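Our working data are protein records whose layout never changes between entries. Instead of coordinates, the fold is spelled out as a row of discrete tokens. Here is such a record, shown just as it appears in the course material:
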Amino acid sequence: MTAQIGERLIFDGKETSMAFCPPLPKGHPRIIEIDPDKAKHDDSAPISLILLSTACWRGYQGTWEIKDGQFYLVDLCGRFRLQGEEPLLADWFSGVLRIPRGEMLQYVHMGFGSIFEEEVHVKIERGKVITSRVINNRGKKQDEWELSWLNLPGGENRFPGDDEL
């Protein structure tokens, strides 16, 4: 599997990425699935690239935001679209977001396995931020094979210590 394109995240007012893909809710009236053949011929190049790229198995890229202690879906491109102008509170989501920060220390060509200097883990429950922590990866010995399998899109993306958050 190829390393995957991360979801976009607006965090502390700055755009970054997540090494995690929060699931989209099934059947939500504001999230519309686009016919793949129509989306491939969309005039917007990034949409076409996302649908055709092995670096985006899920076929879409979301933009999310943490604002005022809540987690929102702001935009979707690729095989889904978010209807309306207002951000959508991600109250369907509970889990731990993984946000890479700093220099890439080790590239892993699978999922979201690459290692960065730091990671911010943010615990979300039903769309509300509960707590967060910063993980320092400098000097840690990492098993590339294990990281590859822990970080596949659609997996739980759980790490030691997440339960204590």
The chain has three helices and ten strands. The beta strands are 7-11, 14-18, 31-33, 60-67, 70-78, 80-82, 88-89, 95-106, 115-125, 128-136. The two ends are 30 Å apart (CA to CA).
